[in-house]
Amino acid sequence: MDNANKPNIFNRILDLKALLDQKSYFLFGPRNTGKSFLIRQTFPAETKVINLLKTDIYLELLSEPHKLRELIDPKKDKFVVIDEIQKLPILLNEVHFMIEEYGIHFLLTGSSVRRLKDANNNLLGGRARRSELFPLTYAEITKFNLTNYLRNGGLPFIFNSSEPHEDLRAYVYNFLNEEIKTEAKIRKIDFFHRFLETAALFTSELTNYANIASDVGVSEVTVKSYYELLEDTLIGFQLMPWRKGRSRKAIASSKFYFFDTGVLHSILKSPQILDQNSDVYGRTFEQFMAQEIRAYISYRRLDYDFNFWRSTDQKEVDFVINNNIAIEVKSAKKVKSEHLLSLKEIAAEGDFKSRILVTFDTADRFVEDIQCLHWEKFLKLLWNDKII
Predict the structure, then answer these.
(1) Predicted model pTM
(2) Tell me, what's the pLDDT at 280?
(3) CATH architecture classification, 3-133
């Protein structure tokens, strides 16, 4: 095969072998983030993998869940993978038994947590920890191109696609017609589709349920259930406001981000090249940084709060991490004094070990005690454990 036609191979940060050596794990991640490929890369070919996307296996275990025990040899199978566990949560009773009886370590993957949240499901009572797989991060891509990433996102199959925009469009279509119709049984998919476009328009902004409900033509309760559905299917995540400041003068509304910038722009039907001077570019850049920080905290197994701060007088800092790191993100090419105002104001709210402004300015420096970093320098420091 010609080198130019070889698919990209990425060095994923998440070490599944190290996790499974310790304990059983749930591994969650949206479809096509590369869970199956990472499993094949990590474990030897003889590792027992039970894929519930295979109709024959699914139907057999649906009718007789106890047959899971017949598929596993406790003398040989020390690690067992069950793919898409949310399709048959009843299997968790059998998993529980085999963890206790045989000491088998299970990797239970899923692209949705909706069915698992049912109160009657056995979530193994602490016998399995949780981990997540995200789109590709800056640290996992050898030749990183920010312009391409912001528009097309970090799903591995998109990097190997000759038509990324077509494949992203198909991904969103499949999400609506497979995940949503199957998982949520939404009858009026046109309302949800309208909501999805509206939610994409307001990504990284304060979530105003009343305004979105008015735009979509449904109730606020329905809009809240739609947002919950996006979180349950791992298509997006909420960033909650930081309210531990000394003055407590902070807003209570959350922000919502999609899990991937390419999926966001496919929903928005954005042009193939984003205008760097546009508001959309700036908000996408902020979302990209949110994705990177979120992935870093998860992959490093840090039990840290991840929030944003906005005061009642409209001062805002994009990210507050572990209550002592404040990060403001701007797509500006040069640092200006007004970019520092919120970082200066938040200093009075807590004991911050660092306050950082991330921009496109290549002149890294301190302004008073605020560290100003070019975005790429920031990401290199982040993934080398020098920021958090």
Answers:
(1) 0.93
(2) 93
(3) 3-Layer(aba) Sandwich (3.40)
